[in-house]
Amino acid sequence: MHVVATAGHVDHGKSTLVRALTGMEPDRWAEERRRGMTIDLGFAWTALPSGRELAFVDVPGHERFVSNMLAGIGPVPAVMMVVAADEGWMPQSAEHLAVIDALGLGHGLLVVTRCDREDPELAIEEARSEISQTCLGQVEAVAVSGKTGEGLGNLVKALERLVDSLPPSPADGPVRLWIDRAFTIKGMGTVVTGTLPGGTVAVGDELLLVPSGHRVRVRGLESLKKRVDAVSGVARVAMNLKGVDLGGVTRGMALVTPDRWIGTDTIDVRLRGAPAGGPAREAIFHIGSAAVAVRVRRLGTGTARLTLSAPLPLRVGDRAILREPGSRRVAGLTVLDVRPPSLSRRGAAAAAARELSGWPDPPTGHDLLRRHRFLKRDDLIVMGCEPAGRRVGGDWLADPEHWESLGTDLSRAVDEHAERSPLSPGLPVESARQLLRLPDKRLVEVLVRPPLRVEANRIHRPAAAPRLPAPVATAVRRLEEELGAAPFRAPEAARLAELGLHSRAVIAAARAGALIRLAEGVVLPLSAENLAVEILNRLPQPFTASEARSALGTSRRVAIPLLEYLDSRGHTVRVDSTTRRMRARTTG
């Protein structure tokens, strides 16, 4: 299915056109039919000659019902701009076009109605001139008469071409359906409707109602008045919900896939065409069918921080509208950050403006990481970006440049602590976390690199190693040369003695940090630690001792104490009695 919204001045024949195309009276309230005026959203549908189903969201054109118009046009991917040939371009034509442009809708069609009353060419020329200056650009134009049926065949063909131009909607994406109607049906309970822009909903699915936070279950589904077991966007959908009464649902709420959206009441945005104003003012924020009051704090010429009166499920890259209360002036915006950092520090707002001004539209995961320094992989996905940056431990991703600088900062912090407290056994790990503003204590341990060490939850730099006697230093070099081709095949005690590494020499070399003493008579060169981490990182996780032994090309005599050594160094973590997994740094 595809969904198209109407737009245009009041009484220019939008509803008449929808009736002529579908043979249906748009689904409306009785009050509208009595007054002969569209005051709320109407819905109708038809099958195109290709067999594809096309639904229309018919929006009100009257200036007093601009909020209803925004609720209808917000979730749809394409628009049919309607202008009457006998009246031409009018005030609400311009206002609806401003909304379309603010939302960044790039797919549309110009329909000039009442061609039986007036030659449509002038109206077409005037409307195209206005539309060409917006994101719609050069659109196809069709002249029709809803009364006589003239041009309807051409319009149907044009709608086929419009549908062909629409990008596919991912059926496997997370669901976010903005509710535009809620009512009850006897024997069924609460029913809501909306335009599903993407994802798939099925009977039995659990969804989250935002902002109330209620979990509801889909008891039944309809699309175009047909009962279905599942429906994928783009589509008009009616859902029978279990778990919420009608009093708990209103237009502007959203049904979303649990744990796949961030409900936020603070966002940073890029504004387009925003009216001039002071550094902070009130406005109405429109997205989908939602309309909430917001406080606007200007950051720079084209950026602002919005504080919403109620949390909404938003993602980076969302397009929305700001409207001045009591005014028809609108400004478009793109959501840049749904979890922006605090602006409490002096100069933070100006720094944020400089940073955001250089971001692309929409920003990428790399942009978000540069700003936040650290984000969990799943959080970045939920924010609306592909994972980026460097994986530094567990699920944490880091901005690579910042991560590299932290290694230097940690080394400096350890040395400064030693100068201030020479009798202290080292800098506490938690103190290092706070100094470096790391979100997780485990990241401190990942940052620790030789010669720094972590012992008893403190970081220290070992005292300068004693100078090795020449015979011992020579023996260590012989060991390194002998194990060059097979670095984990530790020599037996007899061979160590032949190399000059008798028991006292091994102890001296280990104390000096010249080799690794894994157990009595089991020693490896220093390079073995990093090499083992690199090899084990390539194994499927978790792995057994046998799998590690095979990958390292060594014996059980060496593999078991080596794995225990890697445990003590924080490279590996036991999963259970037989398996381990890596905690080493990798690049994401």
UniProtKB/TrEMBL annotation:
List, for all copies, the residue spans of the domain called Tr-type G: 1-169
List the SUPFAM superfamilies hit by this protein, alphabetically: P-loop containing nucleoside triphosphate hydrolases, Translation proteins, Winged helix' DNA-binding domain
List, in alphabetical order, the Gene Ontology terms for molecular function in this entry: translation elongation factor activity
Q: State where the protein is found.
A: Cytoplasm
Q: Which domain of life is it from?
A: Bacteria
InterPro entries for this protein: Beta-barrel_SelB, EF-Tu_GTPase, P-loop_NTPase, SelB_WHD4, T_Tr_GTP-bd_dom, Transl_B-barrel_sf, Transl_elong_SelB, WH-like_DNA-bd_sf
Q: Which PROSITE patterns match?
A: G_TR_2
Keyword annotations: Cytoplasm, Elongation factor, GTP-binding, Nucleotide-binding, Protein biosynthesis
Alphabetical list of Pfam families matching this protein = Beta-barrel_SelB, GTP_EFTU, WHD_3rd_SelB
Q: Which CDD domains match?
A: SelB
Keyword GTP-binding recorded? yes
Q: What is this protein called?
A: Selenocysteine-specific translation elongation factor
What gene is behind this protein? selB
